[in-house]
Amino acid sequence: MASALAPYSAAAGGEKHDKPNIVLIVADDMGWSDAGCYGGEINTPNIDSLAADGLRFSQFYVNPVCAPSRAALMTGLYPRNHNGSTSVLTPNMVTAAQALRSAGYRTSISGKWNCQRQKPDTPLAWGFEEFYGFPDMPSNYFNPALEDMKFGGFRPPFEHNGEEIWEFPDDFYVTDAINDHAVEMIKRYSEGSEPFFAYVAHLAPHNPLQARPEDIEQYRGKFMGGWDALRRERHQRQLDMGLVHPEWGMLDYGNITNTSPWVDTEHKEWQDLRMAVYAAMIDSMDQGIGRILRTLKDCGVDRNTIVLFLSDNGGDAGNMRWDSPDIDPGGVDTYCAVGPEWGVMHNTPFRAAKAAVYEGGIATPLIVRWHDTIRNGGAVTNQVGHVMDLLPTFCDVAGIEYPDEYNGEEIIPCEGLSLLPILEGKQRDAYEWLFWEHNDKKAVRHGDWKLVGSGDPANWELYDFESDRTELRNLAEEHPDRVKTMAQAWSDWAERTNG
Q1: Which of 69, 88, 287, 388 could form a disulfide with 312 if both were Cys (CB 3.0 to 4.6 A apart)?
Q2: Mapping DSSP to helix (H, G, I), strand (E, B) and coil, where does residue 53 land?
């Protein structure tokens, strides 16, 4: 059994460490297929460079919405109290930042925390020594101090190490601010003798659709071909990359709830603009990622730094109540979303989107670059992973064990599995079971079988991922015993983790 984490004491004389630095970059509501290296047409050269030099995962999972994913990322656990949109951190958990600090790591978070929303449970209470961002999320990219349009006037404050920030310069943009702070932390930490963990937690491309005009203009008109054609083009690129299998089907627009084919859609220029702003938001994030990668190189630490990129859930296919062809999205005073058709495209070729437990809601891109360890750059792994694998992976590469005790508290045993064998080109022991829940939606994966349900227990659907990862052919009636066994496993898990 792992022992309690011991406080770290620096090596005498400030000797340079041999532990790898870790830069973890998380997008918010970015779809599985949005980046170029996953089939998208958005300009993401820096994310794509990570894939070219690293490893892409084709079967990596998160939770259906933001907070449970970020809690699982931090703790190596399934989210607790997860029947909803939040997950609660408790004293019997340990975070990645706490574990890594025990191994001598400097720790910073730039951006969205979203694990605990109220003081004193900010990142500073959970192992981070530097926090610049927001405990929950702002509703405006250009001025986070504006009245929150989504939550009825509640304004989550922007903070720097516990000090609230209510005034922002005229040229402020959240995405740039997050990346700039991450660059500052990497420069500062690279000057020392300790390794560092820099968590870059983006808001982009979460709604509202707001981006710099110059970033929007380069995309205007590029989506006039329509979501049908562009989705098919994404799918073909994914096939060419070996990310998906040709035998998997894909629903057509019109057969997907709340969608219609492009040919039947009015206000095409407005629809094009919605997608152009969304693309600009990802483009801006990618530009900042480029600054982060150049900083690692300029500081001479890029070869000994693991860089990871993923999203916290599937792309969002919802509308906001302000969505109207009379309102052009993009500016500080607009609050719009991409809508269901573009949202479906973001998760090509999967079914559904954010908040669902179909693959479109829980599959994420994961890219890992680690020079000298991942030697087959550009490769794709089909091994299954989950966001709760990140903490045990960080413990592995830092040379520490996940603790059974921390701050005098008995710690819940880690439920994730280290990704290190996969990064080293080996076959990892596979998960026997994986589970999800969001409100009344539930899912369980067992090998290549996945069970999906909602509401009435009789509504279980069963899919065989060997031939149908896009979840189009329900086999529940053909395999009632398998349904019963998997449903019971899900109930046992839910009782264990949702108390």
Answers
A1: 69
A2: helix
